[in-house]
Write a structure and sequence with these properties.
Elements: H1 54-57, H2 68-72, H3 84-87, H4 91-106
Length: 116
């Protein structure tokens, strides 16, 4: 009986079925999700640029709550405020942005949620 049954370890003389390369941080093997790692030596598919605060680069100090076009870019389709890690806005401007969006919602310039 030389066939390997699932759930049993291969015998000492039999070759291993598959050997996996280390896929930890810094390893160049595939990740469990099937995506290549972006660590050193790995050939990552995507290069993520560091996000820069739009308000800091354009030197916008006060965020007007009346500027609906500007605020709509930071509100998701469903009406949620998009978090900092997705927009790249710095902490102080994110707080001011949140306050401006809430003010615009209160005076009905922006919707609280989409119509469903």
């Amino acid at each position: 009986m030389s066939e390997e049954t699932p759930g049993r370890a291969p015998e000492a003389g039999a070759p291993a079925a598959q050997s996996h390369a280390p896929s930890g941080p810094g390893g160049s093997g595939p990740r469990p999700g099937g995506r290549p790692s972006g660590g050193p030596g790995g050939r990552g598919k995507f290069f993520r640029r560091k996000k820069v605060c739009k308000f800091c680069t354009e030197k916008i100090d006060a965020i007007p709550y009346r500027d609906v076009r500007l605020l709509q870019g930071f509100v998701a389709e469903r009406g949620k405020i998009v978090p900092r890690r997705l927009t790249g806005v710095c902490t102080t401007h994110q707080r001011r942005l949140t306050r401006a969006i809430k003010q615009a919602r209160n005076i009905a310039l922006l919707p609280f949620a989409t119509r469903h």
